[in-house]
Amino acid sequence: MADLYSRLGIARGADDAAIKKAYRKLAKELHPDRNQDNPNAAERFAEVTSAYDLLSDKDKRAQYDRGEIDDNGNPKMPYGFGGGGGGQGGFRHGQGGANFEFGEADLGDIFSGIFGGGARGRGGPGAGFAGFGGRAARKGADVGYRLQVAFEEAAALKPQRVTLSSGRTIDLKLPAGVENGTQMRLSGQGEEGPGGKGDAIVTIEIRPHRFFKRDGDDVRLDLPISLTEAVKGGPVKVPTVESAVMLTVPAGSSSGKTLRLKGRGFHKKGGGRGDQLVTLMIDIPNDDAALKAFVEGWAGGGNPRAGLGV
C-alpha cells in the first residue's frame, strides 16, 4: 500500500495548507454519498481520511517521518526484531460484521535496561529488566488494533464482539461520544513480557452510512415524502439508527423543512443523546396525468421567488 503522502497525492515536504487542500479535494470526490454505485470509493475515502488524520497532527507526522510509527499510527518494531505478534490479520465479530484488524506491536528497546539508558514504551523512563540496577521487569508490548463499526451500532453503543490475536473473544463496550479515531485500552491483552502482559489499543473507525449523516452528536436524514403528504400533512414512518418511528408532517410543508426527533442521535460524552434532524424532500412523480391536469387548471399560489427580487 502506498505511504500516507502518496495516498493524498502530495510530496513529503508539503505544508499544512497543501495537506488540507489535497484531502478536501479527494474527500469530495470519494465521499460515499457521491459514489453509491462504487463500493471501492468508501474504502478509498476511509484511507485518505486516515492519512489526513495522521498527517494533520504535527507530533504524529513527525513520528511518521522518522519511521517511529506505521501508516495506522501504531509503533513500529525496532530494527532487527521480527518477533511474534507483529503480523497483520483480519477478525470478524458476530454482530454487524465489523472488521477487526491488528497491526504491528512495539517490542521496545529491550537492551536499554542493560546499558543504563531510559527504556522506551510502556514501562516509561528507566523501565528495564529485573536484576539490572533494581529496575522493575518490563511489561510486554502493546498491540494496536483497528475496529470498523457500523454507523447505527456506534450511535446506539451496541457491544462489539471481537476476537483478539490471542484467540480470546470479548464483548467490547463502546464509550459515549465515540467517533472516528477514538482509542480504547484493553488492559493485559497485549504481548507477554517479563513484567506481565502489555495492553491492546483499539482504534475505532465508524463506517459511513448510505443515508444517515453525522452532525456532531446529531444524525441527519433527507426524507422523501409525496406531494399529498406535503399538502395534507399527517404521520409518516421514518427510519432511525435503532428502529422506525412515526413522525407527523405539518400540512403545507415544503422541501427543505427540517423536523426534529429528540434523543435519536449519538450518545454524548456528558450524558444524554443528540437528536435526529429530518429534512423533508417532496418527491414529484415524473409522469402523472392527473397531477398535470390539476396544475393546468390551478392558478398557482403566487410567485414563490418574490422575496429574491425576481
Tell me what you see in this structure.
The protein is an alpha+beta fold and 310 residues long. The protein has three domains: 1-73, Helix Hairpins, CATH 1.10.287.110; 75-208, Urease metallochaperone UreE, N-terminal domain (HSP40/DNAj peptide-binding domain, Sandwich), CATH 2.60.260; 213-285, HSP40/DNAj peptide-binding domain (Sandwich), CATH 2.60.260.20. Helices cover 21% and strands 23% of the residues. The protein has helices spanning 4-8, 16-30, 39-55, 58-65, 151-156, 227-232, 289-296; strands spanning 89-92, 99-105, 143-149, 160-163, 169-172, 183-186, 200-206, 213-215, 218-226, 234-238, 245-249, 258-261, 276-283. The chain has a five-stranded mixed beta sheet. Strand 8 and strand 9 (218-226) form a beta hairpin. Helix 2 runs antiparallel to helix 3 (39-55).
At a glance:
The protein has 310 residues and is of the alpha+beta class. 21% of the residues lie in helices and 23% in strands. The protein is elongated, with a radius of gyration of 26 Å.
